[in-house]
Structures are given as C-alpha cells and as structure tokens.
Design brief:
Blueprint lengths: L4 H14 L3 H4 L19 E4 L6 H17 L6 E4 L6 H10 L6 E5 L1 H8 L13 E7 L3 E4 L15 E5 L8 H9 L3 E5 L5 H9 L5 E4 L5 H8 L8 E5 L7 E2 L2 E2 L3 H9 L6 H13 L1 E7 L5 H16 L4 H4 L5 E4 L3 H9 L2 H20 L1
Parallel strand pairs: 1-2, 1-3, 6-7
Antiparallel strand pairs: 3-12, 4-12, 4-13, 5-8, 5-9, 10-11
Helix pairs in contact: 3-11, 5-10, 6-10, 10-13, 10-14
C-alpha cells in the first residue's frame, strides 16, 4: 500500500527521535522538532467522530471544501468517517492514534464530551487537552408536561417524571439532572434514539419530558412542536442562553431563569455546578479540534483556514437563523473550559450517577 507523504515524514521523524542518545533525548521537548517547517500542513485530513448520518458527518461535507483554500490544499480535505452517532469511537482514535503534527483535525459532537464526563468505560480520551479551532454552539430546548412550581404538598410526596433519553449517560442527562433539581424523581426511558421518536413518545404519553438538541430555525421549531400542543406539552426551558430559542415569537427561558422564577432564588450548590458542565457539553453541536502538542505554526494555519472559510460565507447556510452560534480561534477556550469543568463538579456528577443509575436500571 502506498505510504502518504505526511505518514512518511512522521515515521522518519520518530525514527530519528528513537535514535537520539539517552543523554540528549530529554532536550527534545516539542513535537515541532519533527513537524513540517513553518505553518505548512501536509495532506490535511478531517477525522470525523461519527458516521455519515451523524452531526459530525454532515458538518464534514461543508468543512472539507471550505477549509481547503485556507490550507492551500488543491482539493477538498480527505475525510475519514468512524462508526456510531455519539462520536466516542472517533474521539478514542483521535486521542490515541493521531500524530500531533497538525495534519489531522477532529470533528466531534457534544455527546462524546458528555460520555467522557460521566466516566463512560468506552471513552479513553481527555477532551480538555485538545486545541479548539471552531465550536458550533446550540441551546437545547426541554419540552414536556411538568409543573415546575413546587408547593408545600409537593415536598412530602413522590413526583416521578419520565424523561426520554438515548442512553443513561447520553446528551439528555442534563435534562434528567434538571428535573431532579426541580424536585422530581426522574425516570429515564432509554432507547429513544432520534428526536422524532422522542416527540412521538411525548405525544403518545409514553414519556413526560424530551430534550430537543438539534438546532433549527424558529419556524421549523414551531412546526415541530405544533402537533404536541393538544397533549399539553409546552417548552419548559433551554439548557443555556448562548442561542436564544423562540417559540411562536416568544423567547424560551433558560434553566437558570426558570428555576429563579419558580423558586425565588438562583440555583446553587455542587449538583448545579455539575449540571452546568453537562449542559455546556450537551450544547456543543460540533467542535473542530487539534491534538495537544500541535505546533503553534500549524495551529495558526488551521485558524487561518477557518477564518478564510468564514469570510467567504462557507458557514452561512449553517448559522443563518438556524439556532447555532459559531465561535472560532482563541475565543473557543473559555467555552471548552466550561465543558471540561472543575474536578469537584465532575466528581459530584459521577457520584450522583453512581447513586441513581442503579435505580434507573431497576425501573
């Protein structure tokens, strides 16, 4: 099989590194020593954390040609699809097999970040170390039949509520946690893989609450929710306010705003801090990432390509009035920090899951 040029360069570089005497090996501290000179990016490639039907797969068809000009590539970037919808397989491959020479960038959905935060045994990557180039952010909306106003009577009675989820630790975990903070006993109903399946289950009374994570323009959201109105299902809140969701022309309150309205105080506590991390990760539509230790010149080259694509309107069809906010360059850092969270919040999340997951599996 023909070896690609950048694979040859990487292997040659590592071979040279292996031949350095032990006394001098410690002085080679940067991968830039074996990466292409300057900002040159040889054979730029997109590793897609998902299959062709996934969010990452759909984005790759836009990004592959859009980034080519800024990177000086003669044709759309090569794309390598992986399996599944949640991106875990691709994220594992990126973190364990990608040479940090700046040639390969990862397209990853928020579901892969949530899996890592929850301690999913399939996840073997640390996304907090990645270098973000571009983030597409959304504000998932929670819809259902639930009285969020708690009375004194509610304090002494059990209030179970069924939440549609793709898996126990999927994107909808933020909604499950939110229902618990509102005083309910959430019961995740698993195996509901698509938004339409979730909405059908809500309409038919099989679940009480669903989370709509797919970004869409206001008109499409109105049309999607219209069949649910006879069943009494209404928008309850959004997971964030990065993008303001509107239904019938009225903005939907964020979780923090709705909680404050119903309780007369802002949400606080370690569980809320854990929820914020999960909600931030679940609000990532897609991220474009480079590996840790990628040389600064190559990072700059990719950022330049993202900027060129943006100025030429390559992303207009994705962001124009479609429920997305695009963040690029160094501005991505604070959002990735929110998705990574403090160790105390992540430990609280895993402790909370360890207590409640066995209950959910017992029904």
């Amino acid at each position: 099989m023909r070896m690609r040029r950048r694979q040859f360069l990487a292997l040659a570089g590592f071979s040279a590194l292996a031949g350095i005497p032990a006394a001098h090996a410690g002085s080679l501290t940067h991968i830039a020593a074996i990466a292409p000179a300057g900002g040159t990016i040889v054979d730029p490639t997109l590793l897609v954390a998902g299959n062709a039907e996934s969010a990452a797969g759909r984005w790759s068809t836009v990004l592959a040609p859009a980034l080519a000009q800024g990177l000086g590539a003669p044709a759309p970037l090569d794309t390598h699809l992986t399996s599944g919808l949640d991106g875990v397989t691709g994220a594992n491959q990126f973190d364990t097999q990608t040479v940090p020479d700046g040639a390969t960038a990862l397209l990853v959905p928020g579901a892969a970040l949530v899996a890592s935060l929850t301690g999913d045994p399939r996840a073997h990557y640390d996304f907090g170390r990645w270098v973000p180039l571009m983030l597409s952010l959304v504000s998932p909306i929670v819809v259902g039949r639930a009285d969020l106003h708690r009375t004194l009577r509610d304090l002494v009675r059990d209030r179970p509520i069924r939440v549609a989820v793709s898996s126990d630790h999927g994107l909808e975990l933020a909604t499950v946690m939110a229902m618990a903070m509102f005083g309910f006993r959430p019961i995740p109903v698993t195996g509901i893989a698509t938004p339409q399946e979730a909405l059908d289950a809500l309409r038919d009374g099989k679940v009480d609450v669903v989370q709509i994570s797919d970004p869409m323009p206001p008109q499409a959201l109105d049309a999607l929710l219209a069949p649910l109105e006879p069943s009494g299902a209404v928008p309850l809140f959004t997971l964030g306010d990065t993008v303001r969701a509107t239904v019938h022309g009225r903005p939907v309150q964020s979780f923090a705003e709705r909680f404050t309205q119903e309780r007369g105080r802002a949400p606080t506590g370690l569980l809320y801090e854990a929820w914020k991390v999960v909600a931030s990760a679940a609000s990532l539509d897609i991220g474009l990432m480079l590996p840790m230790l990628t040389p600064p010149a190559q990072v700059a080259g990719w950022r330049h390509a993202v900027g060129v694509a943006g100025t030429q309107g390559a992303f207009d069809t994705l962001k124009a009035d479609a429920g997305r906010a695009l963040v690029t360059g160094p501005d991505c850092g604070r959002y990735l920090h929110d998705m990574t969270g403090e160790i105390s919040a992540v430990l609280m999340l895993r402790r909370w899951l360890a207590i409640h997951t066995p209950e959910w599996r017992l029904g």
